[in-house]
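User: Sequence for CYLD hydrolase below. Tokens please.
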Amino acid sequence: QAPDSFPPLRNEAAVCVLRGRMKGIQGHCNSCYMDAALFSLFSCTSVLDSMLFKPFPLCDRNVQSILRDEIVNPLRKTGFVRARSVMHLREQLTEKGRCSSFTNAEKDPEEFLNLIMHQILGIEPLLKLQSGGQKEQDCYYYQIFMDKQEDLVVPDVQQLVERSFLSSELKLVEIPSCFIIQMPRSGKAYKMFSKIIPSLELDITDLLLDSPRECCVCGSVATLECS
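Assistant: Structure tokens for CYLD hydrolase:
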């Protein structure tokens, strides 16, 4: 019998199910990078639920079922996922990725996302980026890179994304179906910001390539852009 599927948690239900002790995804053996990524991708949004059900061309059904039945559904149903379930997924990633350190070492989220989305499930890239008029680049997520800026003490995500795109001369070629953003960090010893305020909505108008925008002087359709 196929196990039940549970929708993502919303509003008061999310607070009720996810708040308190023994909630979230239990950490074990440097799993924090994967725990945080899985929680962000599935606890309160369905935008990537195709990863749980859709038979992609390269899809590994065993990994897909572990992700759906042992991690996402328990998280949405009870608000808690035990470390053993995540270890089960890590063991499968170790086997598929031919990298033994997936079960015990701390890794960058990009390694996890690229492995599970590209190599194991075969999902099409979520983002199309262009830098300085060069060739388009396909990717699954965007990591914020930027130099330390003294005027940003406690920034929000909107500010970080805009400044990062500006400094790298990046544009979104099209509106993404899902925009996964990794916050800036510099290893264990140094954190660029002590806190980052989540932007509940993200305005990508100025980040889109060739998107019609209003002139800030006359109000007509703009023909020039100044950085």
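The chain has two domains: 11-120, 127-222.
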